[in-house]
Every structure is written in structure tokens, then in C-alpha cells.
Amino acid sequence: MSDHLRAKVEKMGRSDLGRAIAPFSNPDTRRALWQLANTVVPYFGLLALMVFSRLQGWPYPVTLALAVPAAGLSVRIFIFFHDCCHDSFFASRRANRIVGYLTGILTFTPFDAWRRSHNTHHATAGDLDNRGTGDIWTMTVAEYRRASMLKRLCYRLVRNPFFLLLVVPGWLAMIAYRIPWPGQGRAATVSVMITNLALGGIFAAMALTVGWRTYLLVQVPVVLIAWSCGVWLFYVQHQYEDTYWMPGDQRDPVEVALRGSSYYKLPRILQWFTGNIGLHHIHHLRPRIPNYHLQSCQDSIPLLQTVKPLTFRRSLRSASLDLWDERHGKLVGFGAARLDGMC
């Protein structure tokens, strides 16, 4: 974080900051239920309209046009799932688990498996000594210089924005989260199997009623568009020029949140579809704050308003930032590293 922001944090006091944001961690069952109603109902409505468009023989571009808002609602449903993984959507842990499993099925994501990797992400965000679980593959300039040619090519492929947004979403939704990976634990494995069985049941039911081709032509584009948006959001929440990475013994949790997690300022309609997750700096300060309290927290605490926002236009530059430059403390592109004589 900037010296100005660091001074404000120290002036306010970290304990006082913690006390100021704590009240926003209280879940509101009525708001959670209203969010489910104003999102899941229109989501199913759009899916039904997409199915109708196929059965009526409308041009497929019409179906694809309907897939865009449906995907937006799917992203919003994923944020509810995300809150359930943090036990923040409802006050009841059981309710979070039930709704988490159901919203996970709707978004093709196994509850316990994803929660496990995401909690690891929160525990290791900004930690140079603990990368690789629940985050985007990030190498330092020095590591890239020492890497084999094959590893460099793989890294360049993964960091390529077209690969990241067009290939990775399909891999995650259709393959990676359908497999119970070794070592992830019994609960995570069971959640993968339950989610797969549920998705298989949905596929069978749709195949018997509207036809498997119709179902795939409706569901697949919604999933792929939603996951592409999700991957981009997750990427820009931690991958931008002046983000934060430090060795584990020097890592500061407050800096991880306020400097290493972006305040991604989106237009109001996009903020609604993304469930306020652009206020990611607040989410990393206190993960138990539900999405519907993030904006109120931002509006109520002047210190949080001094965090420099990442605008949509600025965020596009993140696609060309690939390596962590430990000497200068910032993300740089392959070209900048080469000019620096490092690769």
C-alpha cells in the first residue's frame, strides 16, 4: 500500500480497523433470501426461454444472446456460493452448507473441494513462499530466468489472455472440478461426486424431456461465458502492477488485503451481477463479510475509501503483466523483464 495509506492505517490502529469492520460480518437472512429470489428465479426463467427458443427453431444467435444475461446471473449465483463457503451468507452454518451445495451444482462447482482450495488462497495470498493453490500461476523474474524452455513455454501459455479466458474456463468447469484429485481429503472428494451425480441427473432429465442437444446448446454457453467472467475477475483481483507479494515471514495481512487485493470499481450494473466482489480489498480484510454488506462497509469507513480503485480500463493492462519483479516490487511483462536483462 502507499505510504499515505499505510500512515492512515497506523493512525487509525489495526485493532480499531478490525472493530470498525466487524459489525458488517453479521449475516442478514432476509437479504440473503431476497438475493436468491431476485437471481435464481430469473436465471431459471432465462434458461427456460433459451430452451423454448431452441424448440421453436429460432436462430441460434438469439439463444446465445440470451446466454449473456443468464451467464451474468450465474456469476452472481457463484458469489452466493462463495459466501456460503465462508459461512457468511446465512447465520446458520447448516443453511450455508445446503445452499452452498445447491448453488455449487448450478455453477458446476463442488462445495467442499472449492472451499478447501479457496481457504488456502486466503491463507497464502501475497505469500511468495506459498504459491500454487487456489491462485493464478505466478513466477518471479528470477524463477522464469532459471526455468527450462518447456516450463517457460507452459507458463507463457497459461498467462496468455486468450488461453486464460477461452480454454481455462472450460477446463475448470468441465474437467478439473469433475475429478476428485488425490490428497484433497474425503469431504472434498465426496462433494465432487455429489455434484457430478447431481449434474448427471439434470442431464438425464433434460435429455428425456427437451433432448440432450437442446440442453447442451443452452447450458454450455452459459457455463463457459460465466466461467470466463469468473476467471477474469479472479485474475484482476490480485494480478495488477502494484500488487503485493512478500516472503512468508515478511508478509503483512493488512497489506495483503489493502494492497494485494484490488478495489475493482465496476459500473453499478456489473457490480450487481458480480455481487460486489470488486470490493475485494474488504473481502480479504474480513472474509466473513457477506457480499450484501461490502458496499456498506466501504461507504462507512473513510480509510477504505482511500484505497486507489482499479478501473475497468486500467484492469485491461493486467493482461500484459506476467512476472513478479522482486527488485522493484511490481508485476512486469515479459518484455520489461527482457529489457532489464533478466530473461
Which terms summarize this structure?
mainly alpha, 5 strands, single chain, 19 helices, three-stranded mixed β-sheet, two-stranded parallel sheet, 343 residues, 3% strand
Task: Give a written overview of the molecule.
There is one protein chain. This protein is 64% helix and 3% strand. The protein has one domain. The strands form two sheets. A three-stranded mixed β-sheet has the order 1-4-5. The protein has a two-stranded parallel sheet with strand order 2-3. It has helices at 3-12, 14-21, 29-55, 60-85, 93-106, 111-124, 141-146, 149-159, 161-166, 168-175, 186-209, 212-236, 253-258, 268-273, 280-285, 291-300, 302-305, 312-315, 334-339, and strands at residues 139-140, 264-265, 310-311, 323-325, 330-332. Strand 4 (323-325) and strand 5 (330-332) form a beta hairpin. The model has no long low-confidence stretch (mean pLDDT 93). It contains 19 helices and five strands. Helix 4 packs antiparallel against helix 5, helix 10 crosses helix 12 and helix 11 runs antiparallel to helix 12 (212-236). It is mainly alpha-helical.
Short description:
The protein has 343 residues and is mainly α. Helix content is 64%, strand content 3%. Helix 4 runs antiparallel to helix 5, helix 5 crosses helix 11 and helix 10 crosses helix 12.
Topology diagram in text:
Layout: H1 3-12, H2 14-21, H3 29-55, H4 60-85, H5 93-106, H6 111-124, E1 139-140, H7 141-146, H8 149-159, H9 161-166, H10 168-175, H11 186-209, H12 212-236, H13 253-258, E2 264-265, H14 268-273, H15 280-285, H16 291-300, H17 302-305, E3 310-311, H18 312-315, E4 323-325, E5 330-332, H19 334-339
Parallel strand pairs: 1-4, 2-3
Antiparallel strand pairs: 4-5
Helix pairs in contact: 3-4, 3-12, 4-5, 4-12, 5-11, 6-11, 10-12, 11-12
